[in-house]
Design a protein that fits this description.
Shape: extended
Order of helices and strands: HHHHHEEHHH
Radius of gyration: 24 Å
Number of strands: 2
Number of helices: 8
Distance between the termini: 49 Å
Helix content: 55-70%
Structural class: mainly alpha
Strand order of the largest sheet: 1-2
Length: about 170
């Protein structure tokens, strides 16, 4: 049994390596550039060149890949563009319970979150958040077919559900 587990773990190495190559080059093949995404309309040729040098995007693609592999091997996943903190720090923050959990065991628990309650209050009250709402989804927890009954117009389905048109028993 131990040999089987060790063999499987060793086979994971080339799979992860191949996956890293595919993802790295696939992201580089996407249209547009990360620099233009960061800078937006304020992008000037000088500023674009400065950012390319800062992020190493002026180097050949194989050097960028090797540099990225070294960083990944040290659990360095870069810096968030939005928060300017390391991605590792962001992941640790999320693991510590900072997530807004949306659904737990079929119940929409995000409705209990203080941020959601504040938002609902600012939009006219929290009366519709005072009960546990488990949405009726045809083919999942309600009779019917998801693709034909729900998917074409989910907003209309939810409105009909909220008005009590369905017997949710």
């Amino acid at each position: 049994m131990l040999r089987y587990v060790v063999r499987r773990l060793l086979l994971l190495i080339p799979i992860l390596f191949g996956l890293s190559i595919l993802v790295f080059f696939w992201v580089r093949a996407l249209p547009g550039s990360p620099i233009s995404s960061i800078l937006g309309e304020r992008a000037t040729p000088a500023l674009i060149q400065q950012y390319k040098e800062r992020y190493g995007l002026d180097e050949p693609i194989y050097k960028q890949y090797v540099k990225q592999l070294r960083a990944w091997s040290h659990a360095d996943f870069g810096t968030s563009i939005a928060t300017h903190r390391t991605i590792t720090y962001e992941i640790k923050q999320r693991k510590s319970g900072d997530w807004v959990k949306l659904i737990d065991k079929g119940r929409i628990v995000a409705l209990d979150h203080p941020r959601v309650v504040r938002l609902a209050s600012s939009l006219g009250g929290t009366h519709h958040l005072e009960y546990d709402w488990i949405p009726a989804l045809p083919g999942i927890n309600y009779p019917g077919d998801y693709r034909t009954d729900y998917a074409p117009d989910p907003v209309s389905w939810i409105r009909r559900e909220q008005t009590g048109e369905f017997d949710l028993g």
